[in-house]
Amino acid sequence: MNAISPHTSAPRTASAGAAVSLDRLGSVVAVLIGVALFVAPFVTYRANRIVAGEARMVLDALPMTLAIGVMAAALGVALVSVTIRQPIIRLVAAALGLAVIFVAVGRAPAFLTPPGNTFARISPAFGFWLLTLAFALLVADSITRLRLGPFARLGAFAVAAAALALLLVSGAWDGLSLLKEYATRADSFWREARQHVFLALGSLAAAALVGLPLGMVCYRVPRVKAAILQILNIIQTIPSIALFGLLMVPLSILSAKVPLAASLGIHGIGAAPAFVALFLYSLLPVVANTVVGLEQVPASVIDAARGMGLSTRQRLWQVELPLAFPIILTGIRIVLVQNLGLATVAALIGGGGFGTFVFQGIGQTAIDLVLLGAIPTVALSFMAAVILDAAIDLAKGPVRD
Amino acid sequence: MRPSISQRVRSVIEIQSLTKRFGDTVVVDDISLTVDEGTISVFVGTSGAGKSTLLRMINRLIEPTSGRVLIDGQDTMAIPEDDLRHRIGYVIQGYGLFPHRTVSENIATVPRLLGWDKKRIAARVEELLDLFQLDSGEFARKYPHELSGGQQQRVGVARALAAKPALLLMDEPFGALDPVIRHKAQDDLLAIQRRLGTTIMLVTHDMDEAFHLGDKIAVMDQARLLQYATPAELLTRPAEEFVEKLVGTAERPFRLLALGKVREAVEPGAATGKPVSASATLREALSQLLWMGREKLPVVDADGTPLGRISIGGILAHGRQPA
Ligand SMILES: Nc1ncnc2c1ncn2[C@@H]1O[C@H](COP(=O)(O)OP(=O)(O)O)[C@@H](O)[C@H]1O
Ligand SMILES: [Mg+2]
User: If you ran DSSP here, which 8-state letter would residue B134 be given?
Assistant: First the structure.
């Protein structure tokens, strides 16, 4: 908590105003928890992986003591969220709530599955997700209100990630439908994971490599800037499927005409068009933010730098780029989060990635398979956002405010 | 006051027929003048007169259309641009401090470009912080946004002086300060300039500032140099009606008095009342006489030795148009 930013001593009026909205959030959280516990099912029981499921409420889904424990914990969080305002207490309560339901849901399969049945599938249901949402809202709000500095936020995130990893590795969730789905395709899961990250990060790296110099050129030459930004804007408006289609033609030709391209794995369908499409989508945020970042460097700073005899190159590296860096990094953040999501679509043209599971799952109406692709995608995007937000804060450094 | 032949000052800056055109507009029109070493020349005129352009042609931030600038006899065109700028201090209205660098890093900019070793840079930064009355323990590691306007201004000038330039260019360096701090900042600059002997070319549109700081004042209007002379000459022998107007007809006698010292108007004899210092300006003395309702007051020098007296009549004679 020592990394709390210097804004903790906010004026009284501001915190009083915030307290009102805090109560509002607290009541919303309490209502969500109530609905989750008493109206919505905690888990779904299915005889096999594709039939429709039967809903089970908390009391029917878990051994009696555990069920009561979950109810008590959730109601406790609800109580805290409406009565207590200190963010640190709300944070601890919500985190404990999450821990309880996350552990508890892992116990449902053993409790619900008839002995010897290997086809039955148990998965978290609406009530569980609603509880997760309610607790997560409280966590997010508390963390915002604590105004944690970048290192504290990264620390909190690392703790949460470690806890999740522990749950996964310990086997506590192995009975859940999603992990059964994973168990049957662990190899392809990690292959697609690598492919997903390669598509998202690789296209980002390529976009940064091309976009940063392009942005610098745009900054120096206004006529180039107008043209380039216009082209990139148009590309940005092309829907991803259409862009894949557009890229198939030239890449097929390239593959057919140039043996080297084919031997490098460049084809009209597959990873190549997906990679190129993601690269093209990434260019606009990178170039635009580079230009904006450089352009917001105060004219007086540049004049002074020139007047003191910094060469064009020294000015760029010592003054302009450092001052533009936080904004450039914001562009990178946008691209990374966008690419991690968009890479899912690559599967449609055989590009691989987590989208493979999503689209296979949709085809088979196997919701677990869809989630096997969707949940890691969301988790990756979230991780990228947290890490880059912290990096942006650090980059702003002394110029913050 | 006037230097004898043997100690005649070396002319540092010679501006010869300097002209700048942007397209068809002439922004600086065939200006020639010489700035003596160790003096302050103030360039004054209305906005758009071409003052900044003239100044920026000295360090070649703007390339002249024609004409040349000599520094110690050397044509600036013969010196690589960046080398030239390392040798000339430059201060602008917003100072342009680097927001991502601390006060000491800002001040160290040019010494670092020149490759000074770390110890020498640290010592120089320390020396400048001291000179500008910025406690190094408190300010060295601060960032510009943590400083007041007056402190930023001092850091801006300290940075410009870091590599001991023989010439300092200042473009409205006090323009962003409020009037109270501005006057103090001007006094500080004057004191530092007298101590270091730096040659200064300063642009302003503030006539009071010009008279306060200038050893010589250059009046510019519509790209032309109308007059380049000492403040007293400007008041007593304005070259054109425009100069006369700019100087302020009503202000003229008071400006003249502000240029003179009590020492120059001391009369023999005694007087009673609170003594006036010989180093005060005639304007200050007159103000004191009027305020106290006196005809005469005694004059003393710095250590209190009586020198004589000063009278309203004697002072007024100095504020009169020369015959
Ligand atoms: N790069 C430029 N292109 C065209 N006109 C310019 C340029 N820079 C300055 N000017 C014009 O030159 C004139 C003098 O400008 P400047 O030297 O900044 O005046 P001052 O500093 O006396 O206010 C102004 O009319 C201004 O519009
Ligand atoms: Mg100007």
Answer: -
